[in-house]
Specification:
The chain is of the alpha/beta class and about 350 residues long. The protein starts with a strand and ends with a helix. Bound molecules: S-adenosyl-L-homocysteine (SAH). The site of S-adenosyl-L-homocysteine has 15 residues, from β10 and β12.
């Protein structure tokens, strides 16, 4: 049985090379070749040694999931439907930011968390993605970008905010992050990668010891326990009071902070009083607040507040000395915005 190449960290590949009496630089060479050259310029030839070519051919499997359809919106956001080897499908989104891009990756097929405002949760949980399926989303999108938009093909940020709860699939997400930041691999800066969690405590507890130095974001959405329970059922098992102290231990270095995402739902969690409570709770922490106006989807039970409301809430947060931004909604016409990913909408949304 061949090993999936895109599941290997550089360290794994060095160990494999060692077992075949190849020097460690062969692994770096191979990593560099596949991640920086071959995937982007498919015709270039390499000069691996004879034995390295044998390992490449006989022991490694380079297959990738396929882009089966995509939808482009007027604002240049692109939603990709990606089909995995077993026929399961996930979505990934390319979000433009000036001449660069953020890629939003999925970590699971469906999701177990069943948050009451999220379209993905309605799909139920099918399975975890493997590392090579996570890295495969990135590579396929990078290739598409290079081919279709060659003038502005740089991917700047990666966010684990697609389908799934990334910390529920800790091992695969961790290894994908290692490959993304490896200088011989995809070479992204750690602070350009953000893993967003609904507050999955077992993963947060492992983070400090095991995760590479990437950013953490918590889907907060309410500081009132009963309300957070009703939005994120996981809160009943791992309440905020238990999560926050663990989370605050994560950021490394002076400039790092925890991002708290606050989904704003009209007449549910958008009162000034609630935002004052949020300000009081977070005011002395290394926190950055990202307000996300709710993105509706077919059958959703919440509503999106007006812009005035959102900007008033931002002012209140800032009055506590906390930095806050409002997430601009991109790609909502093609159901590619946060919480709108659910491949069952394929027929309505995808171009064929
Ligand atoms: N499971 C992870 C990552 C996926 S969701 C998490 O919970 O953080 C990524 C972000 O989109 C989260 O902050 C999530 O709360 C938000 N989101 C989910 N549904 C949404 C919707 N309908 N409108 C706007 N944001 C949504």
């Amino acid at each position: 049985m061949k090993m999936p190449f895109y599941a290997l960290s550089l360290e794994d590949l060095v160990n494999l090379a060692k077992a075949h009496k190849l020097p460690p630089q062969t692994s770096r060479h191979m990593f560099n070749w596949y991640y920086k050259k071959k995937n982007i310029f498919p015709c270039v030839l390499h000069n691996f040694s004879f034995e390295a070519q044998r390992v490449e051919k006989e022991l490694l499997d380079f297959s990738l999931p396929a882009i089966s359809s995509l939808a482009e919106s007027e604002d240049r956001t692109v939603k990709f439907l990606i089909t995995l080897a077993d026929g399961e499908r996930v979505e990934a989104v390319l979000i433009p930011f000036q001449k660069k891009y953020t890629v939003c990756l999925s970590s699971q097929v469906g999701c177990l968390m069943k948050c009451s405002f999220c379209f993905t949760g309605e799909q139920g949980f099918k399975r975890h993605l493997k590392t090579e399926e996570i890295i495969g989303q990135f590579i396929q999108i990078q290739r598409w970008l290079k081919e279709k938009r060659p003038d502005d093909h740089k991917i700047l940020n990666v966010v684990f905010m697609g389908q799934g709860e990334p910390l529920h699939n800790f091992d695969a997400v961790k290894k994908a992050c290692e490959i993304l930041i490896c200088q011989w691999g995809l070479s992204l800066a750690g602070h350009k990668i953000t893993v967003s969690t609904a507050g999955y405590l077992p993963g947060l507890l492992r983070w400090k010891q095991e995760m590479p130095d990437v950013n953490v974001a918590l889907s907060l959405h309410s500081v009132i326990p009963e309300k957070r329970d009703s939005l994120i059922p996981l809160n009943r098992k791992y309440p905020l009071a238990e999560i926050l102290p663990v989370l605050e231990q994560i950021p490394q270095g002076e400039k790092r902070f925890v991002t708290y995402e606050y989904l704003v739902l009209k007449d549910f969690n958008d009162s000034e009083d609630e935002i004052h409570q949020l300000g009081s709770l977070l005011k002395d922490k290394k926190a950055f607040i990202n307000l996300i106006p709710f993105n509706p989807y077919p059958g959703s039970r919440y509503q999106r507040p007006g812009d005035d409301r959102i900007f008033r809430l931002k002012e209140i947060i800032e009055s506590y000395g906390l930095p806050a931004t409002v997430r601009t909604t991109k790609g909502h016409k093609i159901l590619a915005a946060c919480g709108q990913l659910n491949h069952q909408t394929e027929k309505e949304v995808y171009l064929t």
